[in-house]
Amino acid sequence: MGFEFSHFKSLVNVAIDNNASDIHIRAEETPCFRINGDMVSVKSNKTLTTESVLDILRLLTKDNKQIGNLEDIKDLDGAVDFEDICRLRFNYFRYNNKNGIVLRVVKKEIPSFKELGLSDSLKQIIRAKRGLILVTGATGSGKSTTLASMIDYINSKRAKHIITIEDPIEFIHTQKKSRITQREVGIDTENFEDGLKFALRQDPDIILLGELRDQKSVEIALKAAETGHLVLATVHTTDAISTISRIISMFSSDEQTEARKRLSDALYSTISQRMIKSKKSPNGVRVAQEIMVTGPGVKECIRGDEPIDRILSIIENGGTNSGDIPCESFDQAIFTLLERGYITEEDASKEVRSAGDFMRKLMLTK
């Protein structure tokens, strides 16, 4: 007997009941959930077969008429609505002559800044009329959720036209004060480059792009910001310094001087985040964020007039920017979470830049 929808529904419901962020499905193994950052195997005596994994893929792609023979597919990204409960972003893949699927559980209701425990500075950052805002962090650090919350905040407060170009679409936004146009690469537009080119002709105020992976995607984002729009995107980097360094390194050596100038003019803010285990939080984790808003000092560092490492001291001194928006380093954010009882000293010391400096600071405050 094949893997039926009722089995799949039960699996997803168990994942939701246990607040799992991801579901891992692989041939010849039992399913596995990611809960609070850890991989937790589902208690079952049955392992999934190759055909069972394909049955699940058929359920996920049943409305997509463009997909051909599933047995020939090696990699596939997508997202589907799962009844009225959630959306599932999925990636199907093959490995070692086996197959598997990883599903990200995306809740239907977009959480607020307060529910996510995000920095209050985000409310000021998102008021910007133009420029590039980058949300950065490792896979699973909640970048997409933070972006969705930022878009929802704008949608609730301002009457703007927001265009998103996503691969795939994760959170579905309803119309509130803003008009939102969500476009999926491969379905609504051929690629990010075409999506942006035509978006600029659709009278946008705010454009949300996906991940900036290469020079072309960075140039697309810079172009949109330079034309007077507010642009939001993600980068797989750990903090402000690594984000700026990564973007500059995407350009050839003879292009980097110009890239530095364009980035210093366009970059409005970086919001870097990581998840820390928290027994006090309902979902078992707390977000720590490094907040950087560009000002004269940061611009000098981006252009190369000052050492890039100086950005950290600028952030830790609160930042100096035209919006008077408070900046904060990871260490400062982590220390605040510890003071408020959200995380333990042990978990805090694992996440800071220097455990020794952190413990000395802790001793001075006791």
Automatic annotation (TrEMBL):
InterPro entries: AAA+_ATPase, P-loop_NTPase, PilT/PilU, T2SS/T4SS_dom, T4SS_GSP_E_ATPase. Residues 200-214 form the Bacterial type II secretion system protein E domain. CDD domains: PilT. It comes from Halobacteriovorax vibrionivorans. SUPFAM superfamilies: P-loop containing nucleoside triphosphate hydrolases. Belongs to the GSP E family. This is PilT/PilU family type 4a pilus ATPase.
